Every structure is written in C-alpha cells, then in structure tokens.
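Rotation project, supervised by the postdoc (A.L.). Task for the rotation student: set up a whole-complex structure prediction and record inputs and outputs verbatim in this book. Inputs entered:
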Amino acid sequence: MAKEATQTVQIGVAADGRLPLPWLGETLAASAALAGAHALLIHGPAGAGHLEFSLLLAQATLCEAPGAARSGQPCGRCASCHLVATRVHPDLLLVLPDALRVQLGWVDDEDSKLTKADAKPSRDIRVEQVRQAIAWSQQTSGRGRGKVMVLHPADALNGPAANALLKTLEEPPGAMRLLLTSADPERLLPTVRSRCQRLPLGLPPPAQAEAWLREQGLAEPAALLALAGGSPLEALAWAREGMGPALLAELPRRVAAGDASPLAGRGIPRVVELLLKLAHDAQVLAAGGAPRFFAAQHLPAGADPAALRVWQQALLRAARHDEHPWNAGLLIESLVTQATAVWPRPAAGVPLRGGASLNSRA
Ligand SMILES: [Zn+2]
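Outputs recorded:
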C-alpha cells in the first residue's frame, strides 16, 4: 500500500488575504526591514509554522502586485501568487527531506519509489539535492523577478550538503533569495549561520493559539496546547492522533500503574516524546515546581528520584534509536512497565488494566 500524506500545509495567503496561520503576520511585517537580505535564517521554537512562514515570505518576495515588495505582503491574487500557492512557480524551489515530502504528499510520478510502503525516505537534505538546487539557481529567472530557494528545515542539511551550499549562500547568483528555517539554529554549521541574517519566528500567545485551535474543531484546546509546549500546530497534530483532554487527564496515572493500553498503536517516537514529557513533569513536581506539559492535579505524587532517573535514561536511549527493528508494542510495554518503579504501587481497589482491580483479583 502506498503511503498517504499525513500533514497539510496551506501555502501563502488566501485570495481574501487571510494568512495560512494567523500569528505569522507580525514576523511577515518585520521581514520588510530585511528586504535586502539575500539569505535569511527563519528560526523559532518547533511548531511555530516555519514552513508556512517561509512559503508566505517566498510568495511576498515573488508577488507581482504593485506595492507588494514595499509592504512585504503578498496580494494572493496575481499570477505569481497563484503559481506559488499551487507549487508550480518556476522561480521558487523547495528543498525538503524526502521523508517530509512524503508526509506532505508533495511527491510526483518520478518519486513513486518514495511512497512504497517499505520505502525509507531520507530525513536529511542530501548533497545531491543541494547540487540540483545550485544548478537550478544558475538558470535564468522564469518570470524575470528574481528567485527564491527554501531549505526546510536547514537542520536537515547533512555535513556534505551544508558544505556544498556555502558558496551559493555567500553569493547567490542573480537576484536570488535563500530562506533557511530552523527550530534549533545552534545545530547548524557556524559557517551556515554566519552567512544568514536572522528572522525570529515566535509561537502565538495562548489566547490566540486556543482561538485558532477552536476554529480547527478542538472544543477544549488548553490541555493539548500545554502538552504541545504552546505550539498550536503540534497540539492539532496530537488531536489528529486521537489524543484528547480526557485521555490526557488519566494518562499519567495509567502509565504509573503500568497500563500501556492508551499508548497502543502509536509510533515509538511519539510515545517516547509523551513519556519524556511525563518524566520531565514528574521531576519538576518532585522538586516543588509547576509542571509544564500535564496538569498538576493529574500527575501521581511521590515519584522516586532515583527510579525516575533510570526511567528517563531508558526513554532517552529509546529516543536516540527511534527506528527500531523491534516490535513497537513490546518496546512500549517495556517502557511503561519500567514506569511502575518510579511511582509507589497503587492502593488496593485502584483499577488495573482491562478493568480488573486488585480487589476483584483477590
Ligand atoms: Zn501577488
């Protein structure tokens, strides 16, 4: 079975001028001050909308409406804006890891091998992709108004790919603009970082994030937004994976009791991320602080610090090897079983998995 797109991204402004994500407007306005910069590093916390923003800025840079260049706002109606929105603009090149293109469904017929069920598309931006991009950058502009190359995320450039890009980054041919994105700029080669001007992209304030999530159909977005560290895109992704406020409320105690069933069927990276967040909050709570991802009243008390450290180490080991040859179900069971050492055993009468309780078993 072929892989299907699992993520959707609105490209550029809608014809009525609506932004793809409402919180991008401020950064777009700020970008006007950097209109002369030929290489921009768009950086901010994960889930801020880096791809949406870089495409919006690409659209603004290429927009052919009078005044667009000065205002930094794409019109959303001219031929160029339309070509950007449909991903066929001859002067816009998106350089993304193959794995992300598959996730987005942005693959064409030549890529059929990427979408096979057993395909392992690369998570890196490969040096061949950069070489092709450089060759593209040397061709004349299709519409005669400059060109834009988006590299997203730039952290995915592997060593050879980053080195191959340096010369183009320093002196882009013609009127070309490079837009690099990163949620973790410190991971980029210093030689890449130093050649870019920085444009920070932030997460929206919680009220705006919650309002946007309600528009996306989430009735009670607050708990998911907290789990997502304030990123509405990430909160929406959790919701689409079947995570909701009720499940989130009971998850910490069920994990503490060794019940892995709420995590069944989820991918290892997501489960490990969730358990690391739980471990983080347990640690903060034990130190008398306020938990960040889960509500304090939903966290079991009395975590044993030494056992917690052991569990965290096991989770971090699992996070480092997120493409496991092992059976995902077994690994998740094992990680949850290890959690039972962290918290004191539940008192008699507390339901165990499958609805059985210690009392009814006795
Ligand atoms: Zn336009």
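Student's summary: Residues 268-286 form the longest helix (19 residues).
Supervisor addendum: The mean pLDDT is 89.
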